[in-house]
What we know:
The protein has seven helices and 14 strands. It folds into two domains: 77 residues, no CATH class; 157 residues, tt1808, chain A (Alpha-Beta Complex).
Amino acid sequence: xxVHEVGLSWNVSSPVGSxxxxxxxxxxxxxxxxxxxxxxxxxxxxxxxxxxxxKRRYFYxxxxxxxxxxxxxxxxxxxxxxxxxxxxASENLFTLLKMYVRKYGLGVVRHEKILIxxxxxxxxxxxCFFGPEKASAFTPSQSKFxxxxxxxxxxxxxxxANDRGIKFEDYATHGVAEYWIVDPMAETIxxxxxxxxxxxxxxxxxxxxxxxAVVAGFEIPVRAVFDxxxxxxxxxxxxxx
Length: 241
């Protein structure tokens, strides 16, 4: 993944994947609220917020359908091409989930090129699922979407810090009920469920099966995500049910 400065000179001084634990941020805020420097901090915060909003509007103007790009903490992040193992795992899982959801009319599943608009940041997850309540409001020309009910991110060396960092925190903050992290190199899947506003690890699996908590009845062999023959067998089971 690389940060691409499009048309503006934007300072990229820290990794976009870094984030501060909520408890530390809360402590810093409490300290600031008791500080005589609060008015100056508020002035700087408002200025930074206005500047970031301007950059975000610019991002919406310049991003194209051909790019996979995200807006994270005030920066445009353009993603590099993925490796074969990433592509295969992503496509295998997407196909299984899409066919299952379509067969039972459970909502919609989207793959990679769909822009999720959150309060501060905009992401293009590898896979996302919207339940029927959200999906029913979508229009054919819609290009910006709300927080999904399930998100899957497939790791790569350049995205892992964000997938486990800012995205992990942001998805939880915006109520994404279930989050899967797929590691195509280690061939593992981590399933996180939202509990009291934070993600808790439900399972981390390499073999056996994995079942979604959000998509009712969706359960697949773990190997079906990483192996073409296993994926085909699992797909045939879904279609035959």
